[in-house]
Amino acid sequence: MRLPEGFRAAGVAAGVKPSGRPDVALWVADRPSAWAATTTRNRFVAACVTRTRALYATEAPIRAIVVNAGNANCATGDAGVRDDAELAERAAAAVGRRDGAPLAPNEVVTGSTGVIGVPMPMDAVRSGIDAAADALSPAGGEGFATAILTTDLATKVAERTLPGGARVVGVAKGSGMIHPNMATMLAYVATDADVPQATLRAAWPGIVDRSFNQLTVDGDTSTNDMAIVMANGARPADVEAFLEALEAIAVELTEAIAADGEGATTLLRVRVEGAASDDEARVAARGVASSSLVKAAVYGRDPNWGRILVAAGGTRVAMDAATARVTVQGHRVYDGGPAPFDAARVAADMNARVVDLELDLGAGAASGRAWGCDLTTQYVHINADYTT
Amino acid sequence: MRLPEGFRAAGVAAGVKPSGRPDVALWVADRPSAWAATTTRNRFVAACVTRTRALYATEAPIRAIVVNAGNANCATGDAGVRDDAELAERAAAAVGRRDGAPLAPNEVVTGSTGVIGVPMPMDAVRSGIDAAADALSPAGGEGFATAILTTDLATKVAERTLPGGARVVGVAKGSGMIHPNMATMLAYVATDADVPQATLRAAWPGIVDRSFNQLTVDGDTSTNDMAIVMANGARPADVEAFLEALEAIAVELTEAIAADGEGATTLLRVRVEGAASDDEARVAARGVASSSLVKAAVYGRDPNWGRILVAAGGTRVAMDAATARVTVQGHRVYDGGPAPFDAARVAADMNARVVDLELDLGAGAASGRAWGCDLTTQYVHINADYTT
Asked: Is B302 part of the contact surface with chain A (CB cutoff 8 Å)?
């Protein structure tokens, strides 16, 4: 991975994670950068989410993102709020010292993921931030991508080069299962494309709604979910081409997160057509991707059209069973009624890393997508065998 | 189980189920009876649901309920609609013949549960209805309760006697997992209490919202869900006492269904307090009871307050983490922040047939309940190992 022009990054092991793996990450722009962000819709939020929302409202540009993994700094009270602010202060001071140029704490966005209800190990975090600032490099993207992981099995990276040479690079983390809790989703995208902040902020929520927000592993949102894009404006770029690349990256990261869902053997890709509206299409797609019965059927390689129709119908979107169609891995299995299909052939084709489910609701012309993964016995083991 | 005065019931094995177990059920009142019904909220519905809604709208009284298990008569097109009508016609004729008094098809409510997308085996159903009519008896309640089951492990029955002697008797079926599909919930309650139909119809939807609709095993609704209460008016009764008994029966049946959830080892009983409204309390309680992470934690006997708060927060009801409280099996584990608790003791107490989770949202004075079960590896096996 090559970072866009004018960005440096780093990830270091600071001892926040008991495993000793990298856990403090820093991503710095060479100049004040336009940015857009979305944060979790959960009502129970971590200190970094509250702080990011406040920074966001000022509309001021940012210079850096600092993230720690291993501790979510959530349900940690007033001390947690102070610790979160100190992350930004420490990062600003460390980068400023390294570069010989000042940086304001309010130019640094914080992010955390990991255990909740436990005070941040601030000594480790402080030294980690200092070390990360010293390690900043244009080649540090992979290090950043590694240091934000929790129990993810692989880094998630996506990149595009635009006509004219501007670049867009994104990293994400997903379905880590950590004490005592849930799968925080963090996504960070940086570009040297010159895109006005107003454009970024107008486009980002819609892109997130069509990608990360259509991702379901557990059905639960987390206290710390965050998706941020920043643009330092170093290179001219066509805005349309940029936005297309940005959405492609968001979708690619979404699929990478779903494929790495806990205990998952298969990425579940759902496409809904024939919906009354884009919103209903997304609701239905998410309904199918999050249905335990559908997910277990995919694990069992069973092209179970009944579960798919019922999962969509349960979301109460407009649909017509008499004209609806269901396609599993390219095989039509329901067409206004049960369709004949070669069960052994379909099951064999479902035995894949990616399973595509397509559903036409027969109620309109709108479409939408969602992503998930199969529900496996391994998932239950991972989530039941843990003890607080 | 003793049926209320003036009711007879029966269940017979007619060969709809491949297993040869009882599969056609009949419940008959001696006179036209007031009734109330709720049907599935899924948009994909079976023929019996459409027919029941149409009958309901006429406000005419009913005389009988006929149910078959083993075939849901769903996604069966126009032929399925005709088959469903024939169930009522056949039942009316058979009961009329047996009693020597005519019964109209529109006085018979139909219900079906089982496989979807497969034509009803009408020869078996017809002979089953005739045999059930011949077998009708005041002692036939248990037979009815048995014949509506699919893969349920046990019959679900609840009964109350009111001051003055009127009785209320309810039966239900739940989380059967059958080709290709889902857990249809059927519930039937009969009483000899003299309750006006307007009273029944005003009260029943609210009772169902506080009981059956707060039950979650898969998170999916079914194409055939139905809950019906009928009152033949044979005995005077206090309406308040009747409604209280009716709700107690609905809750008791709900708990019985949840406890018999597929692969479940534990009934999960969630109580939410401190909500901004009754509706938000129910939404939050259902969010907790349906969370895969909470359900897996209960299976693992882990008092995981983080997952509980996050599941509630994800429903976006008003809550305040700084004043919220979480109690697991009587042990306070979160009190505006993590609370100290004896982990071994709590885990031991969670190793029970019923686990109670209590959550105070710290946002108001309203309360609500929901019911579910734990998520087990056995659940995944049952739902993945089936092949269409």
From this structure: yes
Token readout for B223 is 């194409």
ipTM of this predicted structure: 0.82
Cβ-Cβ contacts under 8 Å, B306 against chain A: 75, 116-117, 179-182
- Closest partner residue to B313 (CB to CB) among A43, A303, A375 is A43
Catalytic residues of A: 184
Tens of pLDDT, residue by residue over A194-250, are 999 999 999 999 999 999 999 887 667 789 999 999 999 999 999 999 999 999 999
Check CB contact of B77 with chain A, cutoff 8 Å: yes
Extents of the domains making up chain B: 7-259, 267-384
Residues 172-191 of A with CB under 8 A from B: 179-182
Alpha-carbon torsion A248, A249, A252, A253, what sign?
Answer: negative
Residue type, B143: G
**Residue B206, Cβ neighbours under 10 Å: how many?**
13
Same fold, B7-259 and B267-384: no
| C-beta of residue B169 within 8 angstroms of C-beta of residue B252 | no
Please state, as a whole number, how many other Cβ atoms lie within 10 Å of the Cβ of residue B79.
Answer: 13
Can you identify the CATH homologous superfamily of domain A7-259? L-amino peptidase D-ALA esterase/amidase (3.60.70.12)
Separation CA B105–CA A8 (nearest Å)? 77
Q: Give the rounded percent of residues in chain A with a pLDDT score beyond 70.
A: 96
Q: What dotted CATH number matches B267-384?
A: 3.10.20.340
Q: How many helices (H) and strands (E) does chain A have?
A: 11, 13
Estimate to the nearest angstrom the gap between the alpha carbon of A234 and the chain centroid.
26
Considering the candidates B184, B191, B221, B376, report the single residue annotated as catalytic. Answer: B184
Q: Which residue has the tokens 């005519």?
A: B102
Contact B292 A296 (CB under 8 A): no
